[in-house]
Structure of TetR/AcrR family transcriptional regulator:
Amino acid sequence: MERVLTERGRATRDRIVEGAARLLRERGVPNVGLDDIRAATATSKSQLFHYFPDGKSDLLLAVAEYEAAEVIADQQPMLGDLVDLATWHAWRDRVVERYAAQGDRCPLTALTAQLGLADPATRTIITRMYDRWQSHLADGVRALTAAGAIPPGADPDRSATAILTAICGGATMLQATNRITYLEVALDDALSTLGVGRG
């Protein structure tokens, strides 16, 4: 049964999770212990275990949920309103801008590379995040098709999957090389195939 927190308790828990997320992005999961998180978030040991009874495993799942939400939030409000070409172009620019600014400390990298896939619960969080992301993109393709803004016949789910894969592949290469061009080219090619390119 999920614990019901007071407003103050929720704020404290959120502060711990956000502080832990920042620290884990900077140092990586293997290099961060609970004492590091306590020091970075000015949290006592009793507080930490009050909100995360199983210690680091509980906290890492909470951080995974936080990072998954951040991946989607970083693309809003455009991602949830892809109803015309102008919004698609603005969303594309937001994606490139955010990943260029964050580099290998982006929420997606923290979620998939730092937190890893070994824990089935973390894998479930990541899968839900990808499903939500893909759903927004597919809805956007349907909206453009209905408005006659792109050629008819596009498969919304397939197109959304191609766009999402382009972003994630580009983000992986950005992590390894610190070059944003991989993401830009892959995303632009995926959008151009759909008919959403600027050219």
Summary: The mean pLDDT is 91. The first helix runs from residue 7 to 27.
